[in-house]
Amino acid sequence: MSSVPSLPRCLCLALPLWLLPLGGAAAPASADLNQAWGALADNRLAEAQRVLGAAPSTRPAQLAWAVAEMTRPPVTEAHRRAAERVFQELARGDDEVGAQAEYLRARLHQLHDVPADETGAAGLYRALAARRPHSHWAQLGLVKLALLELYRRPDPADAAADRLAPAEAALAQIEEPALRRDLHLQIGQAGVALQQPLGRLLPHLVAADRLGGLTSAAREDLIVQIGVLSLRAGQLDQAQAYFARYLQDYPANTRAYTVTQLQEQIRRRRAQESAP
Amino acid sequence: MNLAPLRSGALLLLAGYAVATYWVFTRSTPLVATRPVVIRLAHWQIERGPPEGIAAVIQRYEELHPRVKVEQELIPDRIYRQWLRSNLAGDNGPDIMEWGSWVEGHKDLPARYFTPLTAELAQPNPYNRGTSQEHLPWEKTFHDGLTCPKRDSPDPGQIYAVTITETTMRLFCNAQLLREVTGSEAVPRTYDDLRRIFALTKRYAALTGRPLAALAGSRDNGRAIAETMFSGPLLGLNQRLDDDGNLYLYNRKLLGAYLAGRWNYRDPHVKAGLALVREVAQAMKPGFLQLRRDDAMLEFFRGEALFLYYGTWDATTLRQMVPFEIRTLRLPAVTADDPIAGRWIAGPLGEGQGETTLSLYVNRATPHREEVIDFLRFLTSVPGNQRFTDHSLWLPAINGVQVPEVIRGFRDYQVGHAFGQATYDALGSSVSLVWDRNFHHLAGDQGSVDKFAEVLDQAMPAAIRADLQDEVRNTLLLVRPQDAAILGHASLGDDSPAGQRHRLRQQEMEASQTISEGQLGQARRALDFAKERP
């Protein structure tokens, strides 16, 4: 019934054996790459490079090799330069690996250069966002760029510049909810550090909380922070709601007593306000 | 020639050899390890209690897991810092190790050598099956939700450790000596009562010629009581400096605030705290800063000190070793009606409300990550932690564990505010060093609060800048390698359950890395600001 021409029986039997070397050659390459990414995920950098070998041939493998090279101890200028050469070459490609490589180039300038080359990094983040605006790495780069702008040294010629504005503008370009959350949070925190009005920074903190997904101390700090700053801003309902949530989620925390006292403070203020 | 003695000797030798052979092969450790996985756990709690408690847990765990052997390494605290760093640097670190952010000069260790446990802590602990904690995420089974590891994490979105016990500070009192000195069995109820006992002890020692101090003294015990006393008047200042509204001041914030000129050691709150520190220092024997906790313990054992102020971690040792009746008290808090420091007290100070401790961290380089985490799950499960508690007589860290009668009183906490990561004497290694080096300006008959505060404000700016630079360095150490891990998780992410876990981990790491970089930006800004100040 089959339209496939029948093969001689001996060839049919031999085929699987004949294909084995091909399958055998391809599978370990992919498995090796996954093993290397696994090692990188666990920060076993030397192991990742050992698995990849000295001269990996595919673009993802070259990327993985350079990622390990950029961080592996001992940290030297030679390692940094070798990693950047690979990133630069890979960034020419118009694929996911290209976007990752361009992002990592910016990270090299921002975090690995001594002193940090923040201008160079900012330029690379901008270029990546312009070329591949919807790539995750471009979007993440926009968050990092916003951070650089929030905390850059004040330009004496422009001391009164609105530091939050560029970061707020970047929000419009960020599509991924988790990255929007991270940027909202950073704008809020920078707003506190830069002594911006509570009315401007609190909505960013609340937006970060509503987007959800923060863990550990970051979550705990944010809940109590919104409560306290709302109280300072006179937003008693919001303060009360966050304090109640804090006590529900962290009843045994050392801050619980102070939060209870602040709830009492709100109750007193409300009683005073409603008194004739 | 008579061969009988020779023959008897040979027979005796042969019998001895046979017995030894039988013993070696049936009773002692086999020549070849039969358990393929060996986990090393190192800690410095060599006092009575924890070694026995952990050993009991290990014994049960090894019964359940014949493949795994857990070795407990007891390293005295005097050498722990050097021991740990050199072993980690030499790729010979233990798989599990105790660490605390207060260990001087060790702030970089988590970022360099430890691995986060956040993802595992979000899942239930399988060893809690059939207990009250069965369906809860592992993190929620800890009495305090792991406050200490969260606070000490170099990475705000991650948890790097689990805790196994709960401790607090207590004033251990020699009841017999108290009767001798004060003529009464009444224990101090207020700090002013304690102050009076300090004065009575001095007088009694002078009258009798006995070497006697009110408080057993050493650098460790001195710092412990000084920090407790210091905290009271600092509360109001901490509240004033809490721009973030976190109800908590991380060290980096306090260091930045000092460089911005927002507080100094001559601030009235700080000086009130220093006055209290001077009072307790004067209640110890001269030169106590040169001594360690064991010396203070011996002074107390010999009946040369009325009180010993230290953690409940020493309670088991004291209970087993002292020949006199001990009463365990809370250190009376300095309250707003105190005649000396009362006006600077902004509210009651809490004792931590049951913060759990003895934090155990996992070596990032361990070849047995799965087994290590499994052992930690057992150690911090209801049955495992019950075993630890019963054998150590230390409080448990896990909800649902029964607390033995003799230690129930340790959970009688003073409820109140708890506001800072550290007091102003211990904001970083350099600050701590400057404090110790100049402490003689405060203590002793020639010392004074004004002199000490003035000397500190001359020496501290450089120390505080160095400690903030350390914070910057440590944050960089943390965030730099995270890019490799993020790329690794991103590349392994797909729609399979394992791939989804990688995606989630990628997202969590990106979030916490960005938070760390925000903190880095703030710390650098504070350092820049200080550079611009005259």
Could you tell me how far the N terminus lies from the C terminus of chain B, measured between alpha carbons in angstroms?
Answer: 102 Å
Please give the alpha-carbon distance between the first and last residues of chain A: 95 Å
Choose one word for the global shape of chain A: elongated
User: How many strands, which pairing sense, and closed or not: the largest β-sheet of chain A?
Assistant: none
CATH homology-level superfamily of the largest domain in chain B? Periplasmic binding protein-like II
State mean pLDDT of chain A (0 to 100 scale): 88
Secondary structure tally, helices of chain B = 18
CATH architecture of the largest domain in chain B: 3-Layer(aba) Sandwich
The quaternary structure here is heterodimer
Q: Write down how many β-strands of chain B occur, each being a DSSP E stretch of 2 or more residues.
A: 10
Instruction: Give helix and strand order of chain B, one letter per element, not per position.
Output: HEHEHEHHHEEHHEHHHHEHEEHHEHHH
Strand order of the largest sheet of chain B: 2-1-3-9-4-10
Q: Would you tell me which CATH topology of the largest domain in chain B applies?
A: D-Maltodextrin-Binding Protein, domain 2
Radius of gyration of chain A: 27 Å
Q: Tell me roughly what share of residues is in helical segments of chain B.
A: 40-55%
In the CATH scheme, the class of the largest domain in chain B would be Alpha Beta
Mean pLDDT of chain B: 91
Question: Helix- and strand-based class of chain A?
Answer: mainly alpha
* Low-confidence segments of chain A: 1-28
